[in-house]
Amino acid sequence: MQNIEDIHNFLKTEFVEHLKGLDRDDQRGLIDAFLVKQEEKLDPNTYFHEMNLLSTVTSLFMAGTETTSSTIRWALSYMIQYPDIQKRVHEEIDRVIGMSQPRIDHRKNMPYTNAVIHETQRFANIVPLNLPRETTSDLTFQGYHLPKGTYIVPLLESVLYDKTQFERPELFYPEHFLDAQGAFVKKAAFIPFSAGRRSCPGETLAKMELFLFFTSLMQKFTFHAAPGVKNFNVKPSVGLTIAPVAPKMCCVLRSY
Ligand code: HEM
Description:
Layout: H1 4-20, H2 30-40, H3 50-81, H4 83-96, H5 111-124, E1 133-134, E2 139-141, E3 144-146, E4 151-152, H6 157-160, H7 203-220, E5 221-225, E6 235-236, E7 244-245, E8 249-253
Antiparallel strand pairs: 1-4, 2-3, 5-8, 6-7
Bound molecules: protoporphyrin IX containing FE (HEM).
C-alpha cells in the first residue's frame, strides 16, 4: 500500500466485510467490538464513529509494523557484525528449544537471547525522538520553568545511552542485561517504549513478537554478509523511526 488513502480505502472495505459477518455475541476482535458500540448509538456525541475506527486501526498498523520489523532487521544485522554473539544465541536455542516451535514460555529459560533482544532495542534506539508532547499546565521540572503549551520532545537516547545506567553504552553489549551468573537482569533505564501513562500500548505484544520472530529465524538460519561485502557496516536511516540500511545479507539454512 502506497499511502494513507490506500490504507483507509482498504480498511473501509474490511469494515463492510466485518459488518456483514457481525455477531454481537461472538465478537472476533477490535473492529467487531467497535462496530457493536457504533450500532448501539446510545450517545449522540459517541467516539464510536467510522473516522475514529479508521484512525485507531491505522495507528495500530502504522505504530505496530515498522517498529517491530526494523528491530528484527537491526537484531539480524548485529548477529552478522558480532558472529560470537550469534553463536551463543544459536547454542541457547539448540539447548532450550531444539527443533520445536519457539513459544513465549521458552523465554524464561533463555537469558542470553533475551538479553540480546533487549540490547538490540537499547542500542538501535529506533524511536529516538519519542512522540512529541505538550504541557497542559505551567510546571517546574528540575529547576526549569515550562509554561503551559510548551512543546516537549523527550529524547529516549539520553536514557538508553546513559553511562550511569549502562556500563558500556556505546557498544553492543548484551551483558548490560545479565548478571555475573548469566541470569537476565531488568533495567529501569530500558525504556525504548517510553514511560508513563502514554507509553507504548503495544509493548507486551511487541516483546512477544520480537522473541518469537527472532528465535524462529535464528533457529533455522545463520546470518552472514553477502559474498563480496567486506565490511558489513549498518547505517541508520533518517525518519520518525530509525531503520537499518544494511548491505546485502545471506541467510544460510542451518544443518542439524
Ligand atoms: C519494537 C517495537 C515498538 C517500539 C520500540 C515502540 C515504541 C513506541 C514509543 C516510544 C511510543 C511513544 C510513547 C510516548 O509517547 O510516550 C509508542 C507509541 C505507540 N505505540 Fe509503540 N512501539 C513498538 C511496537 C508497537 C506495537 C506492536 C503496537 C501495536 C500493535 C504499538 C502501538 C503504539 C501506539 C498506538 C502508540 C501511540 C500511543 C499514544 O499516543 O498514546 N507499538 N511506541
